[in-house]
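R.M. (postdoc): so does anyone remember the format we settled on? I'll just put the C-alpha cells first.
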C-alpha cells in the first residue's frame, strides 16, 4: 500500500480547521485537538513542523494561539507533505542523494518519476480554500463528531 503517514493526515486536518475560520483567528492546540479528534501531544509536534515551514504562526500567552501564516489560497496539500514528510517520492531510487545503480536508463525509475511528478502537480493544486469550499457542512460535521467523542460513556445498571 502506498499511503501518507498519520502525521501528514493530522497536519492536513489541523490546517483545514484553521482554514475554516475567519482569517487571522487564533485558536489553542487543545481546542483544535478536541474539535478535530487529534491527540494533543502529537498536534504540538505537528504545529512545530508547520511553523518551521511557514504554514502556521504561533503566539504565546493571553490571546495567543495558532493561526495560518498565509492565506488558505496559498497553502496546498503538497506544502503539508513537504513540511511533514520532506516531500513526495514514490520509490527510494528517486530520492535525492541516493543514486540508482541502474541510473537514468532505468525505465522503471522513469515511470516512478513520471508518476511522482503527476502526484506532486495535483497536490499543488489542492489548496485549503478549495477544500473548505467543497463542503459547506464540513465544520458542522467535525463539531458534531467531537461533541459525541467527548460525551461520557453511559453505564448500564444491572437489573436485580
Amino acid at each position: 500500500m502506498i499511503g501518507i503517514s498519520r502525521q501528514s493526515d493530522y497536519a492536513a486536518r489541523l490546517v483545514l480547521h484553521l482554514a475554516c475560520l475567519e482569517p487571522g483567528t487564533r485558536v489553542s492546540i487543545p481546542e483544535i485537538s478536541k474539535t478535530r479528534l487529534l491527540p494533543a501531544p502529537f498536534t504540538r509536534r505537528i504545529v512545530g513542523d508547520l511553523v518551521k515551514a511557514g504554514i502556521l504562526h504561533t503566539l504565546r500567552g493571553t490571546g495567543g494561539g495558532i493561526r495560518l501564516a498565509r492565506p488558505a489560497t496559498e497553502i496546498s496539500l503538497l506544502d503539508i507533505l513537504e513540511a511533514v514528510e520532506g516531500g513526495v517520492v514514490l520509490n527510494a531510487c528517486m530520492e535525492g542523494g541516493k543514486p540508482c545503480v541502474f541510473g537514468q536508463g532505468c525505465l522503471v525509475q522513469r515511470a516512478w518519476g513520471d508518476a511522482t511528478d503527476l502526484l506532486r502537480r495535483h497536490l499543488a493544486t489542492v489548496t485549503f480554500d478549495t477544500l473548505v469550499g467543497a463542503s459547506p457542512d464540513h465544520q458542522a460535521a467535525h463539531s458534531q463528531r467531537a461533541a459525541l467523542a467527548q460525551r461520557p460513556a453511559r453505564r448500564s445498571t444491572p437489573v436485580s
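R.M.: ...and that's the designed sequence above, right after the C-alpha cells. Also worth knowing: Strands lie at 56-59, 65-68. The mean pLDDT is 83.
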